[in-house]
Automatic annotation (TrEMBL):
The chain crosses the membrane at residues 12-33, 53-75, 87-106, 126-148, 160-184. Keywords: Membrane, Transmembrane, Transmembrane helix. This is Intimal thickness related receptor IRP domain-containing protein. The keyword Membrane applies. The keyword Manganese does not apply. PROSITE patterns: PROKAR_LIPOPROTEIN.
Amino acid sequence: MIQFKLYSFFDKGSLLILGLLHLNLISSCIFTISCESYIPTLSYLGTFRLHDLGFILALTLQSFMLLILFIAFHHSLDVALSKDDKHFLMIHEITILIFIVFLGIIDESSSIDFNPFDDIHRFISFAFAGFCISWGYWALKFLANNVLDEEQKLNHKIAFKVYLAAVAFTVLTLFQWLFAYTIYNNLLFNQISESLCEWTAVIISARFPYYLCRVMENTVSISNAKEKSKN
């Protein structure tokens, strides 16, 4: 029987996703975009016919990992949620998974010069961020009701700090989207600040499930057919 902590899976999985995104960014700076004066955002890279493949692959992996996270979270709770709380979280989880698929489809169907779904993309991006922020808050709140040992309590505090950092940079990114390309463009709201805020938000958000799983302490067991027959 093979046993491993779920947080180790999310540790390696999040690093793989971030590795794909950063390799995509580096390759775009080498072959496609002059990054001396502008660091491309994820959405901008998604409009390039070659670099969008790395973006779509990362989104696909992220959606798969989120599905596992949602299932593991419900199994990790000591106290059963009420029907209202369970339905509330499930609506969040289904909506997040649907939105992440739509974001990939819209970016794949857009180009640098033509984006017929720009307003829809903006709305889904804002809604996706809102649902993720809300789910993270309630997940941490419900986990706090578990019987946690001292290490889990410490990990809960760390996860909450990571959550706050992710929320802060996500909100900053949303403000950058609103003002960086308007008459309010200044030292605070501009293309460079937008890219830096977005990439920071992506990095922290991608790592948040790992810290959340450190609180959950789920263990996955895998038995092969030979072991089952012996038993």
